[in-house]
Design a protein that fits this description.
Layout lengths: L2 H9 L13 H12 L3 H15 L4 H10 L4 H12 L18 H10 L3 H4 L2 H11 L4 H8 L9 H11 L4 H13 L2 H14 L1 H10 L1
Helix pairs in contact: 2-4, 4-5, 5-6, 6-9, 8-10, 9-10, 10-12, 11-13
Amino acid sequence: IENEEVYASWLQPFDPESVGTRGYPRYWWYLRSLFTDASHENHQAGLEVARTLWSEAPLRARIGLAFAFPGEASWAREAAEACLARDEMPQGAHFLVAVLDDGELVEKLVRAIPGAAKLLEPLLTYRMVKNLGPAAVGVLEALLFVEDDSRFSDHRLEHAKALALIQSESSALAFSKLFEDWNTKVVARAKSFLNTNGAHLLTALSKDA
């Protein structure tokens, strides 16, 4: 599909209820990529359509709109608060982790999403770390220290790698907890990564030893 055709289909007005049919995660990944690479004119035109849809769109679609247009900071917060107010978490709520700018709110959301540690793909996790900086440590701890069958999975290793990117005392302390908690094989893999990418953490841990 040529990009201009996609722009044209998105920019055509449509009933807000139909946004729900576009509320699937892969669609929002694509839409975000599309408008990130768009010309200023196309991006602004798409944003105007999104703003028109926002107030009447179902929550799942608002999650997608907040993810696709991260410059609208209030959208992510509103969508996250709406998710937390529900008894059942909407599909795709974990995408908000990558666009929120409030570490406490992200941590609340992560703790409320069933299986969040498995749902969060590395790109979402690293984007969160870029947005939050040291405030992401609490979120990553929430993802790393859970009691389920993915406790020692590759998902956890990716979250540990993201933790290694944060240069702070709290991130070093979180790693010391990991080394106490994880099995020998996982610790070896984490240390191997840290030897290349997180020397500051190893230094802090060696002082604490």
